[in-house]
Amino acid sequence: MAKAQSIEPNIADLANSWLKSYNLDYKLEQEKLNDEIDKALQEYFSKSGGKGTNRPDVKLLLQDKELNNYPILVEYKGYKDKLEKLDKNGNVENIKSNNEPNLKNINSYAVNGAVHYANALLHHTNYKDIISIGMTGYKDSKGEIKHSIGVYYVSESNFGVGQKVKEYDDFSFLSKEHFDEFIHDVKTLQLPQEELDKIKEQREREIDSSLTKLNNDIYQNEKGLGENDRVYLVAVSIIATIGIPGKVPVLEKQDLKSSPMKGGTDGDILMTRVRAFLEEKNLPRENQNLIIRTLENTILSENLNKIESGETQLKRVFSKIVDDLGIYYKIGLTTDFTGKLFNEMYSWLGFTQDKLNDVVLTPAYVANLLVKLARVNKRFVCVGLCNRLCGSFNCCNE
Predict the structure, then answer these.
(1) Which UniProt keywords apply (predicted)?
(2) DSSP states of 236-292 as a string?
(3) pLDDT, tens digit (0-9, with 9 covering 90-100), for 137-174
């Protein structure tokens, strides 16, 4: 039997005709939407793996009545059974059992591809709420087009996995007349706690895999970095890229210029963000100074800031850390994620062979209760061998 022919061009024509009829300013695959979104799609790993530009078939940026902007990312396919691939829990299956991206699913299914694009925005932009749309179809025995649509809400609240909104026959929910009603439906979505716990467990397994990959990459390809150096580099990179809204801007990869200027090296730029972050968190001065001194020994080192082929080793490692770990703290890093992160990082240190060594971070509500009972300053941080870094991360989680 001959293989069915894709009708993706027909599906695209149909869907785009709807968008045109709603007078929406949509952008096609090769067109630019805005610098932030376009750059994020370029920075994120492609549907084929590795570096490469991600190109949704259609991109839009719509605003609701409260002036909130929502990126809309659309992916088309042209076969009957290529709308979405879900796992046993009913979630979009973009991760394999070994915690690697499921590139086959991302490439083959419309919804999976659209959710992949949404994660690029969660990772590399300030957009926290994204709408992913997949559409596919086929021609029946009469030659008539039969289509199906999947609409998913991808956000920090569902850790980038996505939640199905409703069933739709067309894209009229994006029209000016219906978009606010659609956003109302989106805001009422709520995952059961049991489902959230499963997603968090999956993300934790991904962190393990990403950290192992990152550690091996740095060990094999970045010479002169000891175990402590790797831990400090991850800590500094996360602090610098979390930022504090309205006070400490997020450090982007392009902000590191690999300049030899005194006071303007990549190390200087990173440490400036760390100092500002700790200052805004109102840590006791002695603890700030201790953390900064510890980190400066690595971050300001001559070798890390030496420029070769127009780039420092520090910028190269910083970029790897952001690419491999950024998605996890961009989607809402909690104490669960932080504890997992530090357990893995702690295992990098050569002196820790004891399997009983473990990092468990106290939830914020428990810590606040203990502060009240003990009548101590909640800004006090116990600083020990590795606690000086955990103190920094506890600040991030508050």
Answers:
(1) Methyltransferase, Restriction system, S-adenosyl-L-methionine, Transferase
(2) HHHHHHH-BTTTBPPPPGGG-----STT-SHHHHHHHHHHHHHHHTT--HHHHHHHH
(3) 999 999 999 999 999 999 988 989 999 999 999 999 99
**Residue whose entry in the numeric block shows the structure tokens 């439906």:** 185
Q: Which of 211, 160, 242, 205 is nearest to 325 (CA)?
A: 211
CB crowding 254-264: b at 16 or more within 10 Å, else e:
ebbebeeeeee
Q: Can you say how many angstroms the Cα of residue 243 is from the centroid of all Cα atoms in its chain? A: 15
CA trace torsion 272, 253, 335, 162 (10° rounding): 150
Query: Cβ distance 110 to 170 under 8 Å?
Result: no
As a whole number of angstroms, the distance between CA 118 and CA 131 comes to 7
Chain position carrying tokens 């059992």: 97
H or E, element range at 7? none
Q: Which amino acid is at 194?
A: E
Determine if residue 159 is left, alpha or beta; phi over 0 gives left, psi from -120 to 50 gives alpha, anything else beta. Answer: left
**Contact of 318 with 237, CB cutoff 8 Å:** yes
Query: Using an 8 Å Cβ cutoff, are 138 and 79 in contact?
Result: yes
pLDDT 10s digits, 270-304: 999 999 999 998 888 998 999 999 999 999 999 99
> Reduced to 3 states, what is the DSSP secondary structure of residue 59?
strand
Distances (CA, A) of 352 to 227, 347, 359: 11, 6, 12
**pTM, 2 dp:** 0.75
Domain boundaries, the chain: 8-191, 197-397
359's CB contacts (< 8 A; 6+ apart) are 339, 342, 343, 346, 386, 390
Environment class of residue 113 by beta-carbon count within 10 Å: exposed (0-12), middle (13-18) or buried (19+)?
A: buried
Alpha carbon distance 352, 357 (integer Å)? 8
Nearest to 383 by CA among 244, 272, 283: 283
